[in-house]
Structures are given as structure tokens and as C-alpha cells.
Amino acid sequence: MATMNRERSEDSAFAAGRNSWNRHYHNSVVQPLLTDLYQITMAYAYWKSGKIDDNAVFDLFFRTNPFQGEFTIFAGLEECLKFLDSFHYSETDIEYLKHALPQGIEDDFFEYLSQLTAKEVTLYAIEEGSVAFPRVPLIKVVGPLIIVQLLETTLLTLVNYASLMATNAARYRMVAGKHIHLLEFGLRRAQGPDGGLSASKYSYIGGFDGTSNVLAGKLFNIPVKGTHAHAYITSFTGIDELKTRVLQHKEDGTTRDILELAMEHRTNLASVLDVSTDESSEGELAAMVSFAIAFPDGFMALVDTYDVKRSGLLNFCAVALALNDQGYRAIGIRIDSGDLAYLSCLARETFERIAERFKLPWFSKLTIVASNDINEDTILSLNEQGHKIDCFGIGTHLVTCQRQPALGCVYKMVEINNQPRIKLSQDVGKVTMPGSKNVFRLYGADGHALIDLLQRVDENPPEVGQKVLCRHPFQESKRAYVIPTNVEPLYRVYWTDGRVAQVLPSLEEVRERVQASLKTLRQDHKRTLNPTPYKVAVSDNLYNFIHELWLQNAPIGELA
Question: How far apart are CA 184 and CA 198, in angstroms?
């Protein structure tokens, strides 16, 4: 009893430690020098021009949803707040900048930089894990011009990939369905170590159930999963190589030779499965026996090293039955090549036949994991073919976001010293919406989100049951009245007075937020093929304000 209590205490301490690692982990690469050179040269020009006391508002937003879809998952907010909390130029940073920046920069500027912090910055944002849409600022940053300008590149790199990755993962979750397990296997294909860690973290947020990345498991408290590689199977050439062959019974402790049991079962299974033992690999059998002895409670084997039908399945089932003789239950198989739909159906049929023949109901429920360069379209095709896969291990296409490798978030000034600013372009899609704004999500009678509405900060918020005129920001004829059944303010103050202003959710809570937020959207907004665009509108007041400012700033041409 004392031993059990001690083990429970140690487990509790370990769990608490993992949560602590998660909350306090800070990527040391994320620091003020993780920025573009022109941010610092602009800072000097601002300083030289006497703009130290200027205050500005910047919006961080994207213009197009990724993956030809109609929603995006906002992620990366917690890392942004950690960056603000630690923002400070060290002595070595200042020394480096003195050599890296152009000659002639005054020493007083470097002294100014050494004293900079994010204490006077205020950061507004939508809740991490929420669905978001083009032109709606994910983050609004308010504060002294120089410091909020210096934040730009780092905030963008923290939000761009995180949101893209979470969105990609959420799409995989939707096409796989809620009953299929999804595992992230992408570390070896990710864009470097930081990309690998971020992929593990944000794929979990997006709806994946676990990762193969051990460090991500430690840092973020993500379930870690894995089997073995083909190399383990091919490392054995025959049964003579087995150094350990016996295993104690799980309950009574009696010892039996697992290899002998497996070979007996293999002979019996050959007739049941209509295959020949002569065609199965002895080396594969030896490898599976050794792995089963090492992990009797967690035996999952790769069955496609040689031939799934003639060797892999036969050897796995023989070893699984041998484990059963010793009181253990195998977990399942992984298939990493071939026709995944056909092979998964073959495997399930095999398991069901054995379950019936040997009166082992659990055998029919053995897990079938599929990997092998799987993407969104692969899963959709497998769904149409009626696969029997329980779990997908997804790597390259998930972590590299091959369908769209960048989200394209931008960071634009919209106000300085209480004066609105607008960026014009011949491409209307790149015209910014000026001024400090609030954003509200309006819900329809069916309970689904209907439209996101941007307003100027001095406008009264929309009210439930009251008619609201919603306008397209740039197309005059596109407008509609909305009578919301629910009005959700999207912004919260997350950073002010030099500290985090909200209790931040755990990774698990952000993960739950993603699924809850997706449920607020109609199915046609989420479908894979030709999804319906979600509407983002501006108030009548903001519409008129945008166009008045546009006319004030647009040059008047002259016809010769």
C-alpha cells in the first residue's frame, strides 16, 4: 500500500511538473532581434524625427482563408503574450546592433533601445482557438509608435504558422470524422526543430489526438504515440536471433515460450486465413515476438515490411494469440504502404474471423493505423471506399501545409495620434480599413454565426433583436439588414500595464475551443468542396468613414 501511495504521489508530481513545463516554456529564439532589419532602422528614423511620444494602432489580419476554405483557426496568442512579457534588448543585443546597423547612428538611440519594454502596450485579440475570417483583425496593438512597430515581424511569425497549422489540423479532423484517431508524425519532415515543435503543438490544438514528437509531449503535455520502424523488422533475419523467448503470465506469473506459442498459432491460423506459412517471413515473426515480449501490454506491429496478406497479418495474429495465452491483449497494427482501403478491410475481416473462431470478441476490435503520405484528399477517397481504419498517422502534408505553405497575415497601421490612417492600392483587396475598431459576431435565428461586423470604437455595439445595417467595405450595392439573436464581442484585452490581463486557457481548453467555435458555423461554410463564403461587414458609419478618407487621400488624376 505504501508503495502504491508513493507511486501515485510521484505520478501526481510528474503531472504537475508537465503542466508547469507547458505554462512556463518559452522559446529562447523568440526575442527582440527575431525581426527584420528595417524594423530597427525605422525605429531609429522615428526616434531621430522626434516621434518618441507618438502613439499608434496596428491591426494584424489576413486577407484570404487558406486551403481554398472559408474559415481560419486563430492560434499563437499565448506565444505573443510571452514575447511581450520578455521584450527587452540585452547588452549583447545592443552591442550587436552597434555593429550591424549603418554607421552614424547616435549612441543615445542605443541607450533608448536598452530601456524599451512592452509596458505601455495594450493588446486586444480574439480568443485563441476561435474561427476567424479575412479582414477581421486577429490582434489589435495600441501603444508608443516605436515599440509597436518593433513588434511587427515577431508577432507575425508567431501567428502565421500557428494559425495555418491549427487550421490544417482542424480540416483533417473534419474529413476524418470525430471517431477516427489522428496522430501527428511530422517531426522528421518539418521545417527544422522549431517548425517540428510548433507543428506538434498546433496540430493538437486543431484536433489531433497525439504526436510522435517526444519533446512536444514533455513541453506541451500532448499524448505521445508510436510503434516501430521497418528497420526493427528487417533487423531480424530469423528466429535463431531471438535472445529472449519467454514471458511471464500477466496474472499468475507462469512462464512460457512466446515463440513456440506463436509458431503453433501460426500453423493453425494458416488454414483459417487460407495462407501458407512457407510464404511468411521468419525474420518478421522473430521481430514481432521480440517486440511483444518488450511491450506485452502495448503490442502494435508494422505489418507491411514484406507482404501484408501473406506474412505481416499472419505473423501478427500468431503473436497476438500467443500474448493472449499469457493474459495480454495486443493493441493493433500499422499499415504504411499499399492499397490502404483494401488492406484495412482485409485486416478487419481477418481479425473478425479470428475473433469468431477462437471466441475472442476483443480481437475483432484491434486497432488499424494507416500512414504513408496521407493528405486531406486521401482521407476523403478512403471514406468513399469504405475503409476500416481506426487511426491515421499523418506527417508531411500536415506539418508542411503543402496545399498552402503560408497564411499571409499582415500588420498595418490604422491610426496614429488619434488620426486614422489608410493604405490605398489599385488592388482593392489591399486597401486597409482605417481607425481603431471593434468587432462583433452576430448570430442568426438558427443559432449559427451569421456575419462578423466591424465598427468604429466610438459606435454603440449592436443589440440583440435590433436591426443592424451591415455593408460590404468596398462594394456599395452589397448591404443587408441583420436582426441578431445573439451578439458576441470578439475582442478582449490580453495585455495592458505590462502584464497579461486574462487568465490564459490550457492547451486542452484551447483545443476544446476550436471544436466549439467550429460548431457555430453552418456546414456549408465548412464543406471541402466549394464552401459558402462567410460574410464580414462594416457598419454604415465605418463604411462612410472609409470612403471619405479614401477620397481625401487618393490623388486626383488629370487628363491631358
Answer: 11
Answer yes or no: are the C-beta atoms of 140 and 436 closer than 8 Å.
yes
The Cα–Cα gap between 398 and 540 comes to: 41
Q: What is the model's pTM?
A: 0.94
Element (DSSP H or E) covering residue 334: strand 332-335
First to last CA, the chain: 97
Bridge-based pairing of strands 410-416 and 55-61 is antiparallel
Residue 541 clears pLDDT 80, i.e. is over it: yes
Q: Which residues, other chains included, contact 128 with Cβ-Cβ below 8 Å and sequence gap of 6+?
A: 74, 75, 76, 77, 78, 505, 510, 513
Q: How far from 275 is each of 350, 358, 447, CA to CA, in Å?
A: 12, 18, 56
β-pair partners for 91 = none
**H helix count then E strand count, the chain:** 19, 23
Q: Which of 371, 322, 374, 370 is nearest to 347 (CA)?
A: 370
Cα 184 to chain centroid distance, Å, stands at 10
| Separation between Cα atoms, residue 214 and residue 220, nearest integer Å | 10
Crossing angle of helices 37-48 and 107-114, in 10° steps, is 110
Dmax over Cα atoms in the chain, in whole Å? Answer: 102
CA Rg value for the chain:
29
**Residues 6+ positions from 497 with CB-CB distance below 8 Å:** 119
Closest CA to 118 of 504, 503, 496: 496
Gap between the Cα atoms of 412 and 44, Å rounded: 19
DSSP state of 498: T
Cβ pair 59, 132 in contact under 8 A: no
- Tens of pLDDT, residues 456-498: 999 999 999 999 999 999 999 999 999 999 999 999 999 999 9
Edge-to-edge order in the sheet of strand 181-184: 210-211, 181-184, 391-394, 367-370, 332-335, 300-302
User: In sequence order, what are the residues at sequence separation of 6 or more whose Cβ sits closer than 8 angstroms to the Cβ of residue 253?
Assistant: none
- The H or E element containing residue 160 is helix 152-176
Mean pLDDT to the nearest integer, 414-429: 91
- The pairs formed by 370-376 with CB atoms below 8 angstroms and a separation of 24 or more are 370/334, 370/335, 370/336, 370/340, 370/344, 371/185, 371/334, 371/335, 371/336, 371/395, 372/335, 372/336, 372/337, 372/338, 372/340, 373/397, 375/402, 375/403, 376/67, 376/171, 376/172, 376/175, 376/403, 376/528
